[in-house]
Specification:
Blueprint: E1 2-3, E2 9-10, E3 13-15, E4 29-31, H1 34-41, E5 43-44, H2 49-67, E6 77-82, E7 85-91, H3 99-111, H4 115-125, H5 129-132, E8 143-148, E9 151-159, H6 163-183
Helix pairs in contact: 2-6
InterPro entries: PduO/GlcC-like, PduO/GlcC-like_sf, YBR137W-like
Protein name: Heme-binding protein
Length: about 180
C-alpha cells in the first residue's frame, strides 16, 4: 500500500505472476500483495550460517516482547534453510512437531514467494485453493524466501502464533539484518 496525493491509502495495481489463465477468469491485473514489495526489498548479498543464527535470535527476542503482555503464551518453532542445508531449527517446549514449519517451507520452495504472498493472492483470486487441500503445503503466512545474490537460495519459517504474526516476526528480523548489511 502507498499513500495517494490526498494521503489516502492506495493499492498499487500490477500483474500478479501466475494469474494468466486463472480458472476463475479474473482479470490479470489486481492490487499487488503487500508481501511482494517486502520480497523485493529484503534481498541479501550474502547470508551466512551466523546470519541465520542472528536472525533466529532476533525472532526469539521479538517473540519475547510480543508475549510479555499476553496471559497465554504460545510456543513457536523456527526453521532456517540455506542451499538445501538446515542451518537452524528450534522448537519451544510447547511445540510438539515441525510439520507446519515444513509445510510452510514447501510452499516457499514450490512457488518462489513467501507463504504470506500465496495467502494474499489466494484471498483475492482463489488461485491456490487446491493447494490448501494438500497436506504438504500451507497457504498462510509464516515462511519467507531468502533471496541471496539475486537467487532464491533458502527460507525462514516460523510457526505457532497467528499466521500473520509468524510472518511479522520473520519480516522484522530480516529488516534488522538488512539494516546491518547496509551499515557494513
Amino acid at each position: 500500500m502507498k499513500r495517494g496525493e490526498n494521503g489516502e491509502m492506495v493499492m498499487k495495481e500490477t500483474a500478479v505472476a501466475g494469474r494468466a489463465g486463472s480458472p476463475d477468469g479474473l482479470a490479470e491485473k489486481c492490487p499487488e500483495p503487500e508481501s511482494a514489495a517486502l520480497e523485493r526489498r529484503l534481498r541479501f548479498e550474502k547470508f551466512s550460517h551466523e546470519d541465520g543464527w542472528n536472525t533466529a535470535m532476533k525472532i526469539l527476542e521479538l517473540y519475547g516482547r510480543k508475549m510479555a503482555d499476553r496471559e497465554i503464551k504460545k510456543g513457536i518453532g523456527i526453521r532456517i534453510v540455506v542451499d538445501g542445508v538446515l542451518i537452524f531449527q528450534y522448537l519451544m517446549d510447547r511445540k510438539r512437531d515441525d510439520s507446519w514449519l515444513i509445510r510452510k517451507q514447501n510452499t516457499v520452495e514450490k512457488f518462489g514467494h513467501s507463504s504470506m504472498y500465496i495467502w494474499e493472492v489466494n484471498e483475492r483470486t482463489h488461485e491456490y485453493e487446491s493447494v490448501k487441500e494438500d497436506p504438504a503445503y500451507a497457504v498462510c503466512g509464516g515462511a519467507f524466501p531468502l533471496i541471496i545474490g539475486g537467487e532464491m537460495r533458502g527460507m525462514v519459517a516460523v510457526s505457532g502464533l497467528a499466521h500473520y504474526e509468524d510472518h511479522e516476526l520473520i519480516v522484522k528480523a530480516l529488516e534488522e539484518l538488512k539494516e546491518q548489511e547496509a551499515g557494513k
